[in-house]
Design a protein that fits this description.
Calcineurin-like_PHP, Metallophosphoesterase_sf, Metallophosphoesterase, hydrolase, 6-stranded mixed beta sheet, about 270 residues, metal-binding, single chain, 7 helices
Amino acid sequence: MKWIAGIGLFGAVGTPLYSFGFERGWLEVTNVSLRLGEGDDASPLQGLRLVHISDIHYGFYWGREQFVGLVERINRLKPDLICFTGDLVDSVPDDLMSCLSIVQSLEAPYGKFAILGNHDSRHEVTQVVDFWAESGFKLLINEHVAVEREGRRFIVAGTDDYLNGSLDLPLTLRGTSEVDDTVIMLIHEPDIADVCALSYPQVKLQLSGHSHGGQVRLPLLSALATPPAGKKYVSGLYWLGDRKMPLYTTRGIGTTGLPIRLFCRPELTVIDFV
């Protein structure tokens, strides 16, 4: 009985301490290899390294010191392209703009792109927009950018937020070709992927965040709770529709609601196109 009581006490006390004090800051780098196309139809992304970041939630137990460490970690990975899929802030702290020089030091020869998340749009969105405008990132709001690489091009497209913004996929992809273009689509909420997979063949990959992977997961029970539009594709790599469009949902960097993670480490995703 003493052993049982001791184990129960350890679980009651140790689990919150572990989830707040340790796992919440225990960043995992996930490496993913993707092949899009074969032979003469090989993707213009072949040989490119993309780093996918999401859900920093700056201001909610995540601040300048953590930002410095994250940026140093990303630069050591030597990305060709960096994509951020929303929720830079949890609320808008007074010192957000003091992090500009940190973010400006991120290096990616083929560009740095960002979109808004539901938390960004819930608060004073103009501050977030101003931050990205000065950071060296291109903020995409229902628009796309063509990137030239070795005589070919690919497209990075990004939508406004689905929950608190005005997501418009036709506007985002206007002017792209269903036959000739290779589009990386950035959408904060992953469950929108079904529309991309079924209706827009030029979208060859969707990157999303939002779900935090559940943030708290239990063995055999998976995620305890997930947010609206983040319930179907919660974490990791999925292949959707008849053409098997890949979607990657990252668990993100920060936390919201409660400053804890359990069996759901924060994630930095590295995608190598082979």
